[in-house]
Design a protein that fits this description.
Strand order of the largest sheet: 1-2-3-5-4
CATH architecture of the largest domain: Alpha-Beta Complex
CATH topology of the largest domain: Aminoglycoside 3'-phosphotransferase, Chain: A, domain 2
Number of helices: 12
Shape: globular
Strand content: 5-15%
Number of strands: 9
CATH class of the largest domain: Alpha Beta
CATH superfamily of the largest domain: Aminoglycoside phosphotransferase (APH), C-terminal lobe
Order of helices and strands: HEEEHEEHHHHEEEEHHHHHH
Number of domains: 2
Radius of gyration: 20 Å
Helix content: 40-55%
Length: 360
Amino acid sequence: MDDATARSIVLEAFRTYEPRQEPRTIEAARVPVSTNRVYRLTFASRPNVFAKLSSYGSFVHFRQDHQRIEQWRRLLAPTRYASFLAPVLCTDDDDVFTYHSGEAWVVFYGESPIRACLPRILSERQVETFALEMGRWHRACREIAGDVLPTWKTVGSDIAILFDGLGSEGWLAERGIDRGEAKYLRDHCNLFLKNAERLGYFGFQKLPLLIDWNIGNFSVTDTSDRVELFSRWDYDWFRIEPVAMDFYFLSRAVSAIGDRTVFSYGPRTFLDPRFRRFLQAYRSEFAITEAELRLAKESYRFFVLNYVVLSGQYFFQPELWTRLVREAIEQYLPELDRIELDDVFTASRASSRGELTPGG
């Protein structure tokens, strides 16, 4: 879809939402890495809004995800994270507004204020206080999680779709995957399901999560050593899953390599000593069992299988997606099964014995 078509769909969506207001400008608000498009709409006499346009997957899932996100945001109202999530705009009957053009769908968000962004490479103290803050954030989400309705989308359904696709010659040809590679990926699908069940996945509490913690997706109150979350506006990878689903992107955020200008998704950030320090501090704020923590490895496997191989054509531009699929098969998954994470999870036990002082 070209930019002019996307803008016309966004304009028609807003006219449907609020026919008495006309945007003064519709400006692209995101670097075009993802196939999702985000636009900032400015007005003469009302607050600005952001529009997300997507043609990926199912409109039903898109609508349901945003209904759950808005429910989550409202449930956080009594907490200090009351204004952290950007509001999803609703209709007069208080349901999330979504627009379906036939070829794409649109949702609108209120404009989030932005304070400071974390530096590309965090200081050691920032790693620790960011971990404490993430522990507090997850604790707040855990306390209201039982009131957030589940979604029809599950990790099991996503893996099943991938497994079936790997048996289709046309599907494989579209992704440049040969039969041997398809068998290899199917083995990883089975391994994910087996290991997740063995660790106790079905008994773990499910929380609403925004698993993509790239530094450009959220802001903090300031860039001092005491990190406190201020605002978050990117909802592309919303899930209701065990908290371990967040850990891979958190390991990237705190790594010594820092934020990246070239996309790559290798698993070795799990081994960074900074991530061990992160987990130690995190566990002093958020109680998590070792089995739940070990699910982080399988959550990474799911990320590669689902967000890179299965759905990457919708999240990344074509040339980037082609490279990432190759890297997933030739680098990411082979390396995952070569690295040993027991020491990482064992080292993080120290926090439970009081070796770190929780934040206020």
